[in-house]
C-alpha cells in the first residue's frame, strides 16, 4: 500500500481537519464528531438537509455542504456507514425548526444507521423525513433483496433537494422533489483497477492488466461482469445503453449527464467517454441540458467511471440550475 | 447454568480475543462478497467494548449489556453495528431484574435479540446473514432443558458453515447473486465467535 497518510486508522479525522482548514469560511466540524456542517447552520425556518455515508467517496459528501445543497454531511469510516450517534448529531446541528431531510444511499448499513438516528431525533420532537437513492442499474431492482445501490446519481438529489430547501420548500416539498429525482436518475459504472481501504492495506479485488469489471459499485464490491477491456467508445456505449434501457427515454426528452471519475481516471479519459455519451444521446434525439464531467463520487483511487442520466422537466431544470456554494459543486 | 457479571465479562473478552485474532480472516471473507470491512469494524468495536467494560464497575448484567450495545452502535458502523447493537440492547432489557441469568432467561434474551435483528435488518432465515446462526442457536435453547457448551459450539459452528452454500439475499453480498455461493457469510462467522465464546464460558462452569 502506497498512500499519503499518517495513520491508516486516522484517515477520516485527518481528512476532516484539512477539509475544514480549506473551507473555514463556509464549513465547520461539529466538535467531537465526524459531522461537517454549514458554518451558518442551523438556519431558522429552512429544512435541514443531511447526507453521509462511508468516507472514501470524496468530494462526497462533505464537499456538497454549502448554501443551495447540503446542510450537513456525516463522514463514516472508509466505506463504512456512519454510526447513529453521529447522524443524530448532524440532525440536531441543522435543525432550524422546519424539519430535517436525510439523503441516504441504498446500502443495508446506511439505511439501518440513519433509521436509528431518525428514531432518536423523533424522540426529541424533530421532524425527520428521508429518501433512499438507488440509481445503479447494474443491480437488479427487487423488493425481495436489498435492491439497487446508490451511486453517483446521489449528487443530483443533493443539488435539487438542496435548491428546493434553499428556496423555502417545506419538508414535504423537499421529500417530493427528492423522490422525483430518484425516480428519474439512473447510473452505471465500470472499473479498471481496484482500490485499497487504508485500514485493510490490500486491494479490494484484483483485475488482470487486460480486464475490466462492469457494473462495479463504489466500494470495490465486485461488479456484475468481468471481461476483456474495450475501447472508450465501447465502454461508453455499454454504460449508456444499460442506463437508457432502464429509463425508457423518448426523443425530445431532456437530460442532465454526469460522467463521473472513480478516483484515478484522468479527465482526458472522462471527456473521451463523454464524447461518445453525448453522441449516442444526440442520435436518439435526446436533448442534453447540462453535462458534468469530473470526480463527484469516487472510490478512493479506483480507476474507472460511471455514467449517470437524469431525466429533466422544467421544475428539475430550474432547481438544477439554481445557485450552489458547496465547494465541490459551485454553480 | 448461571451467568453473572463476571461470567458475561469473560464471555465478552473471549469474543474479543477471537475477533482480534481473526480480524484479517473476517476482512478477507468480506472482501470476497462484500466491501471488505467486517474484520476492521468488528475489531474496532469489540476493542472499544473491552476498553469500556474493563474500566467500569457493573452491578448488573443488564447495565453491562446496555453499555455493550451503545458502544457497538456508536463504534462499529456498517450494518454490523446496528445489528449487534440492537441484539445487546434487547438482551439488556430482557435480563433486567432476572439476574444472575439462568437458562430460561438466556433463552428469552437471545430470542428477543434475534427478533430485534430481524426487525432491524429485515432479513429472513437462509438469506445468508447472521440470522442463519442466531436462529438455530435460539432453537437449540428452546429445545433443551439444559444447555451444554459443547452443543452450543456445535450448533453455531454448523450453522455458520451452512452459510457457505447459500445464495445471499440480504446485505451487500446479495448483489452478487449466484457468485455469493461458495463463500462464508462474514457476519455469521463473527456471530459464531460470539456463541463459541459463550459455549466456552458455559463449559467452564459444567
Automatic annotation (TrEMBL), chain A:
Organism: Robertmurraya kyonggiensis
Keyword Transferase carried by entry: yes
Domain DhaK: 7-329
Sorted UniProt keywords: Glycerol metabolism, Kinase, Transferase
Biological role: Dihydroxyacetone binding subunit of the dihydroxyacetone kinase, which is responsible for the phosphoenolpyruvate (PEP)-dependent phosphorylation of dihydroxyacetone via a phosphoryl group transfer from DhaL-ATP.
A Pfam family this chain is assigned to: Dak1
GO molecular function: glycerone kinase activity; phosphoenolpyruvate-glycerone phosphotransferase activity
Protein name: phosphoenolpyruvate--glycerone phosphotransferase
Assembly behavior: Homodimer. The dihydroxyacetone kinase complex is composed of a homodimer of DhaM, a homodimer of DhaK and the subunit DhaL.
Top-tier EC class: transferase
GO biological process, one term: glycerol catabolic process
Pathway: Polyol metabolism; glycerol degradation
Reaction equations catalysed: dihydroxyacetone + phosphoenolpyruvate = dihydroxyacetone phosphate + pyruvate
InterPro entries associated with the record: DhaK_1, DhaK_dom, Dihydroxyacetone_Kinase
GO terms under cellular component: cytosol
E.C. number: 2.7.1.121
PROSITE patterns: DHAK (PS51481)
UniProtKB/TrEMBL annotation, chain B:
Domain spans labelled DhaL: 6-200
NCBIfam families for this protein: dha_L_ycgS
GO CC list: cytosol
Enzymatic reactions: dihydroxyacetone + phosphoenolpyruvate = dihydroxyacetone phosphate + pyruvate
Pathway participation: Polyol metabolism; glycerol degradation
MF term (GO), any: phosphoenolpyruvate-glycerone phosphotransferase activity
Alphabetical UniProt keywords: Glycerol metabolism, Kinase, Transferase
Annotated InterPro entries: DhaK_L_YcgS, DhaL_dom, DhaL_dom_sf, Dihydroxyacetone_Kinase
Function description: ADP-binding subunit of the dihydroxyacetone kinase, which is responsible for the phosphoenolpyruvate (PEP)-dependent phosphorylation of dihydroxyacetone. DhaL-ADP is converted to DhaL-ATP via a phosphoryl group transfer from DhaM and transmits it to dihydroxyacetone binds to DhaK.
Subunit structure: Homodimer. The dihydroxyacetone kinase complex is composed of a homodimer of DhaM, a homodimer of DhaK and the subunit DhaL.
Name of this protein: phosphoenolpyruvate--glycerone phosphotransferase
Listed EC numbers: 2.7.1.121
Short name of any one Pfam family annotated for the protein: Dak2
GO biological processes: glycerol catabolic process
Superkingdom of origin organism: Bacteria
PANTHER family assigned: TRIOKINASE/FMN CYCLASE (PTHR28629), TRIOKINASE_FMN CYCLASE (PTHR28629:SF4)
UniProt keyword Flavoprotein present: no
Amino acid at each position: 500500500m502506497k498512500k499519503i497518510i499518517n495513520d491508516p486508522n486516522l484517515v477520516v479525522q485527518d481528512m476532516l481537519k484539512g477539509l475544514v482548514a480549506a473551507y473555514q469560511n463556509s464549513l465547520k466540524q461539529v466538535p467531537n464528531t465526524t459531522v461537517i456542517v454549514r458554518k451558518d447552520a442551523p438556519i431558522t425556518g429552512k429544512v435541514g438537509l443531511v447526507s453521509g455515508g462511508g468516507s472514501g467517496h470524496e468530494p462526497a459528501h462533505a464537499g456538497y455542504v454549502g448554501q443551495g445543497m447540503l446542510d450537513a454531511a456525516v463522514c463514516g469510516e472508509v466505506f463504512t456507514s456512519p454510526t447513529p450517534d453521529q447522524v443524530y448529531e448532524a440532525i440536531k446541528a441543522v435543525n432550524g425548526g422546519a424539519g430535517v431531510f436525510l439523503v441516504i444511499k441504498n446500502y443495508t448499513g446506511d439505511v439501518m444507521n440513519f433509521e436509528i438516528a431518525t428514531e432518536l431525533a423523533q424522540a426529541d420532537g424533530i421532524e425527520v423525513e428521508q429518501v433512499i437513492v438507488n440509481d445503479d442499474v447494474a443491480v437488479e431492482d427487487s423488493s425481495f433483496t436489498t435492491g439497487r445501490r446508490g451511486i453517483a446519481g446521489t449528487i443530483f438529489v443533493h443539488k435539487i433537494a438542496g435548491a428546493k430547501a434553499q428556496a423555502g420548500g417545506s419538508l414535504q416539498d423537499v421529500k417530493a422533489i427528492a423522490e422525483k429525482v430518484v425516480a428519474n436518475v439512473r447510473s452505471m459504472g465500470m472499473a479498471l483497477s481496484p482500490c485499497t481501504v487504508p485500514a485493510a492495506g490490500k486491494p479490494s479485488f484484483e483485475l488482470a492488466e487486460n480486464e475490466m469489471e462492469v457494473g462495479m459499485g463504489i466500494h470495490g464490491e465486485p461488479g456484475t461482469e468481468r471481461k476483456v477491456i474495450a475501447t472508450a467508445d465501447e465502454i461508453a456505449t455499454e454504460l449508456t445503453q444499460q442506463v437508457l434501457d432502464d429509463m425508457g427515454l423518448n426523443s425530445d426528452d431532456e437530460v442532465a449527464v454526469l460522467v463521473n471519475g472513480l478516483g484515478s481516471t484522468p479527465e482526458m479519459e472522462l471527456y473521451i467517454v463523454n464524447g461518445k455519451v453525448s453522441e449516442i444521446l444526440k442520435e436518439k434525439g435526446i436533448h442534453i441540458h447540462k453535462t458534468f464531467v469530473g470526480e463527484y463520487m469516487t472510490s478512493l483511487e479506483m480507476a474507472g467511471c460511471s455514467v449517470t442520466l437524469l431525466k429533466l422537466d422544467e421544475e428539475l431544470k430550474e432547481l438544477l440550475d439554481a445557485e450552489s456554494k458547496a465547494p465541490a459543486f459551485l454553480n | 447454568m448461571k451467568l453473572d457479571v463476571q461470567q458475561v465479562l469473560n464471555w465478552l473478552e473471549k469474543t474479543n480475543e477471537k475477533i482480534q485474532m481473526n480480524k484479517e480472516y473476517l476482512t478477507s471473507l468480506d472482501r470476497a462478497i462484500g466491501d471488505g470491512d467486517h474484520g476492521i469494524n468488528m475489531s474496532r468495536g469489540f476493542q472499544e467494548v473491552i476498553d469500556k467494560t474493563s474500566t467500569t464497575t457493573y452491578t448488573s448484567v443488564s447495565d453491562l449489556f446496555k453499555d455493550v450495545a451503545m458502544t457497538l452502535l456508536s463504534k462499529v458502523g456498517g450494518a454490523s453495528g446496528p445489528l449487534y447493537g440492537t441484539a445487546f440492547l434487547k438482551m439488556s432489557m430482557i435480563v433486567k431484574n432476572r439476574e444472575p441469568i439462568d437458562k430460561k432467561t438466556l433463552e428469552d434474551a437471545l430470542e428477543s435479540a434475534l427478533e430485534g435483528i430481524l426487525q432491524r435488518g429485515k432479513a429472513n432465515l437462509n438469506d445468508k446473514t447472521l440470522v442463519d446462526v442466531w436462529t438455530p442457536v435460539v432453537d437449540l435453547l428452546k429445545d433443551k432443558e439444559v444447555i451444554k457448551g459443547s452443543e452450543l459450539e456445535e450448533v453455531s459452528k454448523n450453522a455458520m458453515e451452512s452459510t457457505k452454500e447459500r445464495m445471499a439475499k440480504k446485505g451487500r453480498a446479495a448483489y452478487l447473486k449466484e457468485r455469493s455461493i461458495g463463500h462464508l457469510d462474514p457476519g455469521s462467522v463473527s456471530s459464531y465467535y460470539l456463541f463459541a465464546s459463550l459455549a466456552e464460558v458455559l463449559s467452564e462452569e459444567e
